[in-house]
Design a protein that fits this description.
By secondary structure, this protein is of the alpha+beta class. The protein has two domains: about 1-115, no CATH class; about 120-190, no CATH class. The protein is built from seven helices and four strands. It has helices at about 15-25, 30-50, 75-100, 105-115, 125-135, 140-170, 175-190, and strands at about 1-5, 10, 55-60, 65-70. A four-stranded mixed β-sheet has the order 1-2-3-4. Strand 1 and strand 2 form a beta hairpin. Helix 3 (about 75-100) runs antiparallel to helix 4 (about 105-115). The longest helix is centred in the C-terminal third of the chain and has 30 residues, at about 140-170. The radius of gyration is 17 Å and the shape is globular. The chain starts with a strand and ends with a helix. The relative contact order is 0.09. The model has no long low-confidence stretch (mean pLDDT about 85).
Amino acid sequence: MKFRLFSVDFFLSFPAVAFMSCVLIFDKSGRIFACFFAALLHEIGHLLCMLFLGYRPQSIKLSVFDVAIVSNGEKPFSHSLLITLFGVIFNFFFGIIFLPFNRDLSLAQFAIGLFNLLPVKSLDGGEALSLILQRKLSYSMTEKILFTLTLVFSVTLVFFGTLFLFVSKYNYSLLLIGLYLFAVLFIKQGEI
């Protein structure tokens, strides 16, 4: 689905919308809603920082695996790094704000923020690391380092997620995170 709002092109993939709808329908605890809300605030953080620094978003694409915000103009290193990390900063800020009022919303903010700090491809931590490494290393070497880090993190999370699943008998969240990172790694690799 594609639409235009406030001079920004929005692209929503049907699988992403269908997946989020199904998950929200079957979420009886409200924790998934809290995570989606934290993810929304995370992206709003990126957008607000971008606007504050004078960049206008041209398009926002929501897919099953990520949200891509494309803006106008080249950015200096400091602006790119700040925009990249501001989603996490926003999550931590709201995590502190929500703490006295709603524990689930607060924990979701911290969880989304910490998850996005992982130094892996397609997450803010990986993007920040890429920006830093490209100041000293070639693009090719930076990509190799990020690929290796992402592979190590995803395999480790899948391993410990599988162990944790057998111990807990029901908690599969760590396993899903590892599988998600593993899938994103090879999907993004295919796009290069």
